[in-house]
Amino acid sequence: MNQQILEQKKQLVNEIAEKIDNAASTVIVEYRGLKVKEVTELRRLLREEDCEFIVYKNTMVQRASEKLGYDELLESLTGPNAVAMSADAVAPARVLHKFARKHDKLVIKAGIVDKRFVNADELKALSKLPNKDGMIAMLLGCLQSPIRSFAATVKAIADKEENPATEPAAE
User: Has this prediction a pTM greater than 0.90?
Assistant: First the structure.
């Protein structure tokens, strides 16, 4: 094999490994049977969530996975696959599962979330979580709830002391 081509492939494997390692979430999907229009729509939806959707040769992703120690991914890398990556751990799984409900030809195979291998079932469970901003809002809501209840109770006591109810006259 030409030395220049071999060097290009090594660089590509290193690039893929770096992207997988830096991403909070990487999801492998099979897109066999999807029309160009559908893949374009999927790319647009993923881009809106700051996700990257790339088609690599399986052998390149296999070598990058082996380099990083994700040997579990190797069995998922058969057929026409694409890789969705993001700095958000939930976004790729959420977008891909939502898209897969409408387009049954998209098959979610496996992934890596926070440096841990996850199978399709775990990705499905992960897809039900809100995004990072949604999780922060939920946490703040939980933290504010006791304070809000306490404030309402104090206000009710203060209002009661300001306006004491007239007691009914005894007969």
Answer: no
Whole-angstrom CA distances from 6 to 11, 56, 57 are 9, 16, 14
- Looking from the CA of 74 toward its CB, the CA atoms found within 13 Å total 11
Q: What is the pLDDT of residues 39-96, one digit of tens each?
A: 999 999 999 989 999 999 999 999 999 999 998 888 889 889 999 999 988 889 999 9
Token code pair at residue 74: 């190797």
Domain match, 30 and 90 both: yes
Cα–Cα distance between 39 and 42 in angstroms, integer? Answer: 5
Domain count, the chain: 2
Torsion region of 89: left, alpha or beta (phi above 0 gives left; psi -120 to 50 gives alpha):
alpha
Statement to judge: residues 70 and 117 lie in one domain: yes
Do 88 and 138 share a domain, yes or no?
no
In the block, which residue shows the tokens 């039900």?
128
Same domain, 81 and 68: yes
Dihedral sign computed on CA atoms, order 92, 97, 100, 102: negative
